[in-house]
Specification:
The protein is built from five helices and four strands. With about 230 residues, it is mainly α. The chain has a single domain, classed as Helix Hairpins (Orthogonal Bundle). The chain has a two-stranded antiparallel sheet. A two-stranded antiparallel sheet has the order 3-4. Strand 1 and strand 2 form a beta hairpin. It is elongated, with a radius of gyration of 27 Å. About 20% of the residues have low confidence.
């Protein structure tokens, strides 16, 4: 026979409805500072920004720059809509509403942190591209090298013109440019993505502060409600 949930069994042993309320408040109090799990996205649901897996895992790709710009624009538009509609003071919300708000803020915080991590990886890829070009500065036509087709597969190729580079401009579009132009492109992309990361990190700091305020308010609400319950005999 399958066993019932321990929480259900515990509440069944409660003598009064007040005891059940106390149990639930005490359980909620114990998990206030635990992070909320990120819910799995439904396949048909539209995410608030392009999925991070669409960012190409190719050195020189600028797809993430557009991803970050979309992300920040979407966040800005959402923020403007919320600020214009006004809001309810946090202290006036009930325990369930504050708990739900805390979960939402924690999920947003996790999302921004993951976005920043993905963009930092692309900054590193730009730096690797710049280093690769510097290695080829002294190369002569006919120089052979191993070219990666994937993370685990390489082919031997012969360098035709060391002064020309084939770079990905983004979304699968490639262009052949001079080494100087390629260097300028990677530097611009690195600077742009770094700026987006700095903006997102400011948002992360603000989200953390908001989460802490919500957690403190929730703690106070729970303690106040527990204090109002009659002492069990």
């Amino acid at each position: 026979m399958p066993r019932d949930d321990p929480i259900v069994e515990e509440e069944r042993r409660a003598h009064t409805a007040t005891d059940v309320i106390r149990m639930r408040l005490e359980r909620l109090q114990q998990i206030i500072h635990e992070p909320a799990p990120m819910p799995a996205r439904r396949a048909e649901a539209k995410p608030p920004l392009p999925p991070l897996e669409l960012v190409r895992n190719v050195v020189g790709s600028s797809a993430a720059a557009g991803c970050a710009e979309y992300h920040l624009n979407h966040m800005s538009e959402s923020g403007d809509a919320k600020s214009s509609s006004g809001g309810i003071p946090l202290a006036e919300l009930g325990i369930e509403q504050i708990s739900a708000l805390k979960t939402q803020v924690e999920q947003e915080l996790t999302f921004f942190q993951e976005s920043a991590s993905q963009l930092k990886i692309l900054v590193q890829k730009s730096e690797q591209s710049i280093l690769s070009m510097n290695v080829l500065k002294g190369a002569e036509p006919g120089h052979t090298a191993l070219i990666p087709l994937s993370e685990s597969m390489y082919i031997r190729a012969e360098l035709d013109d060391p002064s020309r580079m084939l770079i990905e401009m983004g979304t699968g579009y490639f262009a052949e440019v001079s080494r100087e132009k390629a260097g300028e492109f990677f530097e611009r992309k690195k600077k742009y993505i770094t700026k987006q990361i700095e903006t997102i990190e400011k948002i992360i700091l603000d989200k953390k502060r908001t989460r802490d305020v919500i957690a403190d308010t929730l703690q106070s609400k729970i303690q106040a409600q527990l204090a109002q319950l009659p002492v069990p005999k």
